[in-house]
Amino acid sequence: MSELKAFLAEGRTSVNGKTAKDGLEFAVAVGTLGSQRGIPEYQRFALLQREPRNPKKATPLGRVHVRENPRASLVSELDARGWLSHARTTVRDSNLPPSLCKFERDLDEALFRLASDDSKKSVQEALIALGALALEIGRRPKLRGKKDGLPPPPHLSKAWAEAANDGTPEFLLAEALASLDATWTGSEGQTFRLPFRRHLAALAANRFSDEWEDTTEAKAFAVWSGRDLLRDMAAVLERRLIEAQRHGGDDAEQLPLRGRRSAPLAAVAAFLARRTDDDRIAALISGLAWVQPRGGAPSNPLRNDAIPFAYAALKPLFAPDGVGRDKKGKKLVDPLPLVRLLRAGRAAEAVAQAQQQARGAGLPAPFERLSPAPPSDPLRLAAALLFPDRAESVRLPSRPCLSQPAHR
């Protein structure tokens, strides 16, 4: 009993040197202190009022096991400049629809789990909940008004991606896609930046800090619906290529398809073979878009699926630096018509046109006189072209391995 009294007498509930001001921060503080003082678990209670005239009652919400969890500090990053506190207060407004409150409760529960669970799954679930809430806020202009509205989520550190990386194709593909970025300098010297998150919501251009913007141009970028991964990815690919024409034209030095993180070819092959969870990829992308991307390329896992001929024929034309046999002879081609053909379901025409463009750029066009069986899912093929790859993985081999039989 004396030890318990001494523990309670400390009265120390702080996170990163700041006093905890809500239940979530209190859970992080108690979890840290408990692991240091040998407390194995604690019981969560909520004061709930069932009816207006009745007093509030303490209702148990489950037990939380305490253990050393370095990842619990990730939660505090979300409250940079008070964003998390502001979001919870704003969303709990009684005038907002219950559907929006659900997104906030999901994030709250995910962060509570993260405070006591150091698994990669708990970090991913927190990112998914954050992405879902941010996506919903971006769709509601009244909620993100300039005076007292909720700003975009803060940029989270790379530690989030490192803690969430479970090596699955779904995570590797989502991380690579969320790392897409591009920067242009306009004729008047203004900077134009196109990170992937600008496709999730209407964000301001010409700034390196995120702000909501309700201009027609900003809304044109926000093509991500969150309902169909393949259609969303194809729409993002087309929009980025359109912007390359608008801002670069014939003088463009690169296509805006470069990512800080590349997607392993094995993961792309699994995606093309329909062996990935598309809903999981889409959910992770919405959260990882707010995380500072890690650079480089992940280790390339063993590839279990053949690369379709159509992908091998098309992908070299989407290289950010252009196509050609050497660096000096590289030039950009216009792959936008290929994307539109694929979105229209005309995959055979897209492959034939790609081989013509490859030959014109000095690349080998093997089997150009053959007619490979067209892919069964042109939209998935178009989506796969958006994944940023390692430079060596997008070269067209002289003798590619066909995943489908060719016929004359």
Shape: elongated
Low-confidence stretches: 392-408
Integer tally of domains: 2
- Average pLDDT across residues? 80
> Helical percent range?
40-55%
Structural class: mainly alpha
Strand content: 5-15%
Distance between the termini: 86 Å
**Strand-and-helix sequence, N→C?**
HEEHEEHHHHHHEEHHHHHHHEHE
What is the topology?
Layout: H1 2-10, E1 14-15, E2 18-19, H2 23-37, E3 41-48, E4 57-65, H3 74-77, H4 83-91, H5 98-116, H6 120-138, H7 158-164, H8 169-178, E5 183-185, E6 191-193, H9 216-221, H10 229-247, H11 265-272, H12 278-288, H13 309-314, H14 336-343, H15 347-360, E7 371-372, H16 378-384, E8 406-407
Antiparallel strand pairs: 1-2, 3-4, 5-6, 7-8
Helix pairs in contact: 2-5, 5-6, 6-12, 8-11, 8-12, 10-14, 10-16, 14-15
Key attributes of the depicted protein:
about 400 residues, 2 domains, two-stranded antiparallel ribbon, 16 helices
3D architecture notes:
With 408 residues, the protein is mostly helical. The model is unreliable at 392-408 (pLDDT under 50). The protein folds into 2 domains: 2-166, no CATH class; 170-407, no CATH class. The protein has 16 helices and 8 strands. The strands form 4 sheets. A two-stranded antiparallel sheet has the order 1-2. A two-stranded antiparallel sheet has the order 3-4. It has a two-stranded antiparallel ribbon with strand order 5-6. Helix 5 packs antiparallel against helix 6 (120-138) and helix 6 packs across helix 12. The chain is elongated, with a radius of gyration of 25 Å.
